[in-house]
Amino acid sequence: MSNSNKNSKFAELMESNRQRKVAQIIQEDFAELFRKQSAESKQSFLVSVSDVKISPDLGVAKIYLSIFPQEFRATIMKEIEENKAQYRNFLGQKMAKQVRVIPHLNFYLDTALDDVERLEKELRGEGDNPVL
Question: What gap in Å lies between CA 49 and CA 113, rounded to an integer?
Fold first, then answer.
């Protein structure tokens, strides 16, 4: 293995490690923010940050949210989208000393738990599929 090939492999590993660290920081900061927002709200809901993926250049963060109960999902996602600039500013204040550029934020609804629940219902014979 040539030295330049070793260096590029090492750079890839370091880069993905850096991505994981930045993603973890973003996940923790937003989890805390959404916990405070739901505690201060008059309505009872839960927003959890289920995952964060960040681009290799650390320029874009995909933030996956689970929102319960389901009837609040559309409203909360709309509000988050409308306040994306403030969320990026919040992140900038939290991460200013850790990264050069604050990533652009993209929020997505994570429905993985709904899928699991639907599958479990199907397996119990409570779904829409006919039992053969």
Answer: 13
Class of domain 3-123: alpha beta
* Burial (CB count within 10 angstroms: exposed 0-12, middle 13-18, buried 19+), residue 30: buried
Q: Letter for the amino acid at 20?
A: R
Residue 77 · residue 109 · CB < 8 Å: yes
d(CA 111, CA 108): 9
The predicted-structure confidence for 21-38, as pLDDT tens digits, reads as follows 999 999 999 999 999 999
Least confident of 33-37, 91-95, 114-118: 114-118
What integer pLDDT is reported at residue 131 of this predicted model? 56
pLDDT in tens, 41-70: 888 899 999 999 999 999 999 999 999 888
Instruction: Please tell me whether residue 105 adopts helix, strand or coil conformation.
Output: strand
Query: Is the bond into 69 cis (omega within 30 degrees of 0)?
Result: yes
**What is the full DSSP assignment across 32-83?**
HHHHHHHHHSSS--EEEEEEEEE-TTS-EEEEEEEEESGGGHHHHHHHHHHT
